Amino acid sequence: MNFFLAILPLLLVLIGMIVFHRSGTFVSIIGWILSMLLAVYYFKTPWSVVWGATAVGVIKALGITLAVIFTMFLISLMKETQALAKIIEYIKAGETYLLNLTQPTKVETKLSLEDIYNISNAHYKLKYRDEFVCFSPERFVKIQNNKIYTYPMKGTIDASIQNAKEKILNNQKEMAEHTMVVDLLRNDLGIIGKKVKVNKFRFIDKIKAGDKELLQVSSEIEATIDNWQKNWLEMILQLLPAGSISGTPKKKTIEIIKRVENYNRGFYTGIFGITDEKTFLDSAVIIRYIEKDKNLIYKSGGGITIDSNVKEEYEELIKKVYIPI
């Protein structure tokens, strides 16, 4: 009888998880409470001993949890390091100069995609069925009054960092990355339009990122387009994929991305938009993106150049995992 009562909490935990599909955390708490009650009231164990044993158990469990988290971090970091090393080799070989590397991150929340869509605060939002939600800060192109505008976004920094604006604008790696994207998109607009010019270069916007704010660096590029009303969609297709989430030279860089990322981006880094009478087309890049598979997957990334540092790139990738509320 004593043996059965001693293992009863463990049996309840297993039954709760396997039969009733309750979370491990929930049934573990129930099992812990039952264990304490049995220890004190049936086995007559002093409370001081029970609390001492509990403290030791929590410390050991915390150690295991931290070890698991640290191992997951190392695995993720190693994947990023291997991918970055390959990209640097391609850059040194002259096959690419800028490549936007992305990775999926598993996230956990009790919120549904519908909940996330409703609470997120972003310039551009999209929820597609029960498959993904996007809250993008980056406009792709806008068509208005025979003009097409594009707004590449490259460069992000935590607004709480001292002199954040000066640091991001004076960072040579960020400057090189942003300049290459602007040059790429100038060329893209030159394919479908004329009189291409950069109206604003590296201006700062502030965006909400969960419980903090980020500064993001963008530019505005303009071109004049003629007789676009009948073939505007074909014109847009010529600009895809967006330069800010691919790289330069675009065609070769896309080939390299397929080799080094080892996962399917899906809808992520595509585009979406709306049309109306005032602004014929306004569109956004599908970034800040959560996808529903067996789990919720947050996809994020950043630009890689010859000056990239693996630790900084990994931090930027993680920094972009947020819901703007």
What does this protein look like?
- The protein is 45% helix and 27% strand.
- The longest helix is centred in the N-terminal third of the chain and has 46 residues, at 47-92.
- A hairpin with a 3-residue loop joins β2 and β3.
- It contains 9 helices and 13 strands.
- By secondary structure, the chain is α+β, with helices and mostly antiparallel strands.
- It has a domain at 98-319: Anthranilate synthase (4-Layer Sandwich), CATH 3.60.120.10.
- Residues 59-75 have low confidence and may be disordered.
- It is globular and about 85 Å long.
- The strands form 2 sheets. Strands 4, 5, 6, 7, 8, 10 and 11 form a 7-stranded antiparallel β-sheet that branches.
- The protein starts with a helix and ends in a 6-residue tail after the last helix.
Blueprint (SSEs and pairs):
Elements (H helix, E strand, L loop, with lengths): L1 H17 L5 H19 L4 H46 L5 E10 L5 H7 L4 E5 L3 E5 L2 E6 L2 E4 L2 E6 L5 H7 L1 H21 L1 E16 L2 E13 L7 H7 L8 E2 L1 H11 L10 E4 L6 E5 L3 E4 L3 E9 L5 H10 L6
Antiparallel strand pairs: 1-9, 1-13, 2-3, 3-12, 4-5, 4-11, 5-8, 6-8, 7-8, 10-11, 12-13
Task: Name its key features.
six-stranded antiparallel β-sheet, 9 helices, alpha+beta, 325 residues, seven-stranded antiparallel β-sheet, Anthranilate synthase
- Principal-axis shape: globular
CATH first level of the domain at 98-319: Alpha Beta
Assembly type: single chain
Arithmetic mean of pLDDT: 81
Structural class: alpha+beta
For the CA atoms, what is the radius of gyration?
Answer: 25 Å
Task: Find the count of extended strands (DSSP E, 2+ residues).
Answer: 13
